[in-house]
Design brief:
The complex is a heterodimer of chains A (113) and B (113).
Chain A (H helix, E strand, L loop, with lengths): L3 E2 L4 E5 L4 E3 L2 E2 L6 E8 L6 E7 L6 E3 L2 E6 L4 E6 L8 E9 L4 E3 L3 E6 L1
Parallel strand pairs in A: 2-12
Antiparallel strand pairs in A: 1-4, 3-9, 5-6, 5-10, 7-8, 8-9, 10-11, 10-12
Chain B lengths: L4 E3 L2 E4 L5 E6 L6 E7 L5 E8 L2 E5 L7 E4 L6 E5 L8 E8 L7 E2 L3 E5 L1
Parallel strand pairs in B: 2-11
Antiparallel strand pairs in B: 1-3, 3-8, 4-5, 4-9, 5-6, 7-8, 9-10, 9-11
Classes of the chains: A mainly beta (113), B mainly beta (113).
């Protein structure tokens, strides 16, 4: 069974639209960490956010916001007023007690100018 | 800001050859990881390393793979006899402690011909 599911394989939006990337996770641990990484065409993994299982507060960082809901095991990522530079593959990841990361399959976002 | 470095950025090798991928983790980090990403697919865990020994490994990490931290700074991944299916991006990551995010290196693209 997948520990991290990103059901959206590819999304295309027009510049300035808002877009939400979904992430659903599965774990039996009470302590875990959730992450989002951005992978631009150059290939590196860029850390965006870490959230621990005890902190359900939503977070906003500029145009980025994250909605963590333990009740639905979801950690969704919203980009407001998308820009062409946001085009990338976005990975959601789960770490149980800080061990290996389980990555989702990624969502490829294309922002059309 | 400290960063994880990896060399080389791109390695081309013939099937059956041995390759060594090198990583220099962040200096005060204690946990080290290798991940693999086949082109267009998700990032997959290979192995974690702590206190000079492997702490966890995946099914992918078979006898053809080995890791070493020979001098307290470098962290290497060796593939003894490469196969075509080993072609992928290999990411090194390090972690200061289990409550923190993993810092990923820029990756080494391995091409086996």
């Amino acid at each position: 069974a997948q520990k991290v599911t990103q059901a959206q394989t590819e999304i295309s939006v027009v510049e300035k639209e808002d877009v939400t990337l979904d992430c659903v996770y599965e774990t039996r641990d009470t302590t875990y960490y959730l992450f989002w990484y951005k992978q631009p065409p150059s290939g590196e993994l860029v850390f965006l956010i870490r959230r621990n299982s005890f902190d359900e507060q939503n977070e906003i960082s500029g145009r980025y916001s994250w909605n963590f809901q333990k009740s639905t095991s979801s950690f969704n990522f919203t980009i407001t007023a998308s820009q062409v530079v946001d085009s990338a593959v976005y990975f959601c990841a789960l770490s149980e007690a800080g061990n290996q990361f389980y990555f989702g399959t990624g969502t490829s976002l294309t922002v059309i100018p | 800001e400290p960063e994880v470095t990896q060399t080389p950025s791109h390695q081309v090798t013939q099937m059956g050859q041995e390759v060594i991928l090198r990583c220099v983790p962040i200096s005060n980090h204690l946990y080290f990881y290798w991940y693999r990403q086949i082109l267009g697919q998700k990032v997959e865990f290979l192995v974690s390393f702590y206190n000079n020994e492997i702490s966890e490994k995946s099914e992918i990490f078979d006898d053809q793979f080995s890791v070493e931290r020979p001098d307290g700074s470098n962290f290497t991944l060796k593939i003894r006899s490469t196969k075509l299916e080993d072609s992928a991006m290999y990411f090194c990551a390090s972690l200061r402690g289990k409550a923190y995010e993993q810092y990923f290196g820029p990756g080494t693209r391995l091409t086996v011909t």
